[in-house]
């Protein structure tokens, strides 16, 4: 595996520029939209759960055919179109707010449609990255991308909370719309030639989808990764449905404090993403995927222990920071593993299969979190999430417990 920095490549820097701006905007509006729903539109726990579920429902509905369509086309034009669509959709939120017609229904519909665009972007991006930097550097590339995402988490929520308090959540959503425009422009400037997909062996869409499903089903490492990620995302979505309610109503934190709590906790995420290549070399590029979750999972139990006052901030920072640090190391390691062991002709469909299995847990978790929040309260719901977090690494540990590096998997398959 090459250790040369992908930052030396102009086109990777452009890809990184687009992700830097869009991820920063996503973190700014990521806190603004839930606060907009809770504080301005007075959303209930169930409505907050529906909003969280809506943004990921498209993965379950169109994820598999999207992967087959992406394998039939060049990926860069798809990424540009997805960015442009998300920018246009998000721009309708501040427009509706100015006209005084913004409703929870519109927020949920915008979340659904931007989720469709996200399906094509996420699957296409994970399939496009190896084209730009090569398969031997995907771990370093994913690490750089996750470092960017983490830096957005560090600065974005604090700024988002402050701007929400100053300007209102609807105005802050416009920031993310602009960042998607910047991302589309950066992608359009990339010059690396992308090979045209093969047309000679094309079959029916259903058969192509089955090929991606079969590869995942017959590859133990991918099966275990899918199960581990699904459990993790289900637990995260359960917590996301009630976290804003817990912090605003139970802990009585203002928007600016919530932004600072999330930002402070995310500082560990930025560090974890940056050191993942080093950890991978020291611990093993396959082993690190489950070990990081085992080490950081117990810290998540601190979140439901928080009580109103300054101790709440400390518990939230440690719990959120440790949990997200483990998740970012896991995300880099697991996606890089998938990109290295999957043939390029199948990569779009395999990415789609994995994203459907993984992201399909989000709407289920969001709905479950909303219902559980209504019945048992936010704190009890967060305890359920903490227990799920402890169970998350078990499938991957069982499958990869005797494997150190991804190269051992690829050698065994050849």
Automatic annotation (TrEMBL):
This protein's record includes keyword DNA-binding: no
PROSITE patterns per record: MFS
Keyword match Amino-acid biosynthesis: no
Pfam family, one: MFS_1
Name of the protein in its database record: MFS transporter
Domain Major facilitator superfamily (MFS) profile: 221-414
InterPro entries linked: MFS, MFS_dom, MFS_trans_sf
Topology of this chain in the membrane: Multi-pass membrane protein
Location in or out of the cell: Cell membrane
GO CC terms of this entry: plasma membrane
Organism per entry: Jiangella anatolica
Transmembrane segments: 12-36, 48-67, 88-121, 166-190, 226-247, 253-276, 288-306, 312-335, 356-375, 381-400
Endpoints of the signal sequence: none
Gene Ontology MF annotations: transmembrane transporter activity
Keywords from the UniProt entry: Cell membrane, Membrane, Transmembrane, Transmembrane helix
């Amino acid at each position: 595996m090459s250790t040369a920095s992908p930052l030396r490549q102009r086109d990777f820097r452009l890809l990184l520029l687009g992700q830097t701006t869009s991820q920063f905007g996503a973190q700014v509006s990521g806190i603004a939209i839930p606060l907009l729903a809770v504080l301005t539109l007075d959303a209930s726990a169930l409505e907050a759960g529906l909003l969280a579920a809506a943004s990921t429902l498209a993965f379950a509905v169109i994820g598999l055919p999207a992967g087959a369509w992406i394998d039939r086309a060049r990926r860069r034009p798809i990424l540009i179109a997805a960015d442009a669509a998300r920018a246009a959709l998000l721009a309708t939120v501040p427009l509706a707010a100015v006209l005084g017609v913004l409703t929870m229904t519109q927020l949920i519909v915008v979340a659904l449609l931007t989720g469709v665009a996200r399906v094509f972007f996420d699957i296409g991006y994970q399939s496009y990255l190896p084209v730009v930097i090569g398969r031997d550097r995907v771990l370093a590339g994913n690490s750089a991308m996750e470092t960017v995402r983490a830096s957005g988490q560090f600065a974005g929520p604090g700024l988002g909370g402050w701007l929400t308090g100053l300007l209102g959540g609807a105005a802050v959503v416009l920031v993310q719309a602009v960042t998607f425009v910047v991302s589309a422009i950066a992608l359009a400037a990339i010059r690396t030639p992308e090979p045209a997909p093969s047309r000679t062996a094309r079959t029916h869409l259903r058969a192509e989808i089955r090929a991606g499903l079969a590869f995942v089903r017959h590859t133990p490492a991918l099966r275990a990764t899918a199960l581990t990620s699904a459990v993790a995302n289900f637990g995260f979505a359960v917590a996301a449905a009630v976290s804003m309610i817990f912090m605003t109503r139970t802990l009585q934190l203002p928007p600016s404090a919530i932004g600072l709590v999330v930002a402070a906790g995310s500082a560990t995420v930025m560090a974890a993403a940056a050191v993942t290549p080093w950890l991978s070399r020291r611990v093993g590029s396959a082993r690190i995927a489950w070990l990081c979750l085992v080490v950081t999972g117990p810290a998540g139990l601190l979140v439901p222990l928080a009580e109103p006052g300054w101790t709440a901030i400390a518990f939230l920072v440690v719990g959120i920071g440790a949990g997200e640090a483990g998740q970012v190391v896991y995300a880099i390691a697991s996606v890089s593993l998938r990109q290295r062991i999957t043939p390029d002709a199948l990569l779009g469909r395999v990415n789609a299969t994995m994203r459907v299995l993984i992201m399909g847990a989000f709407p289920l978790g969001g709905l479950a979190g909303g219902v559980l929040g209504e019945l048992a309260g936010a704190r009890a719901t967060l305890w359920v999430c903490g227990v799920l977090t402890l169970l998350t690494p078990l499938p991957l540990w069982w499958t990869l417990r005797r494997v150190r590096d991804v190269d051992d998997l690829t050698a065994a398959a050849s």
